[in-house]
Specification:
Blueprint lengths: L1 E4 L12 H4 L1 E5 L2 E5 L24 H9 L4 E4 L1 H15 L5
Parallel strand pairs: 1-4
Antiparallel strand pairs: 2-3
């Protein structure tokens, strides 16, 4: 099971959920799921996390999704922060 960044929600345009809301396309020479419009133009992605605001996923994850070997869910920025706070509380881990 994989989790991807839903940003402010997949019902908004402010997310980075390429696997759950994207469509297959080519970016940087690789076929992958992308956030793109009906003309194939890449759309902006959003996530509170640095590095997760990318409009696509690697071809490996695209293959795993299509083959059914992996399932992907998306969580919002708020849900991710709540999970981080719970992890810190329960495990005593304080992120740097």
């Amino acid at each position: 099971i994989g989790v991807e960044a839903a940003g402010l929600g997949t019902d908004t345009e402010k997310h980075a959920a390429s696997l759950t809301k994207g469509t297959p396309g080519v970016l940087h020479g690789a076929l992958m799921y992308l956030l793109q419009d009906e003309h194939g133009q890449i759309q902006e992605a959003h996530s509170i996390s640095a590095g997760l605001d990318y409009p696509g996923v690697g071809p490996e994850h695209s293959y795993l999704k299509d083959s059914g070997r992996a399932e992907y869910e998306s969580i919002t920025d708020e849900e991710a922060l709540e999970a981080l706070q719970l992890l810190c509380k329960l495990e005593g881990i304080i992120p740097a």
